TrEMBL record:
InterPro entries: Gab1-4-like (IPR046355), PH-like_dom_sf (IPR011993), PH_domain (IPR001849). Residues 1-78 form the PH domain. Belongs to the GAB family. This is PH domain-containing protein. It holds the Pfam family PH. Gene3D superfamilies: Pleckstrin-homology domain (PH domain)/Phosphotyrosine-binding domain (PTB) (2.30.29.30).
Length: 78
């Protein structure tokens, strides 16, 4: 696939993505002040990908995983 996009799927077995996020013009940040409201997500680490048309709130299971995602996406964003 295209290395400049992030795709997400309905489930692990899905073959077609629900949406493709163009990372060529985006901003990625760690949002320490925003906390997920659902209990199942409370202990996860939130980061945000902002594009020209939408804001995506993404969760990682660990701080290390979140930092890897943020750094990797940040290398693509302009």
């Amino acid at each position: 696939g295209n290395p400049d996009v992030l795709e997400y799927y309905r489930s692990k077995s899905s073959r077609k993505p629900i949406r493709t996020i163009d990372l060529q013009e985006c901003e990625v940040t760690i949002e320490a002040e925003v906390r997920p409201t659902k209990r199942q997500y409370q202990n996860q680490h939130l980061f945000v990908v902002k594009t020209a048309t939408r804001i995506f709130y993404l969760l990682a299971k660990t701080a290390e995983e979140m930092n890897i995602w943020v750094q990797s996406i940040g290398q693509i964003c302009t």
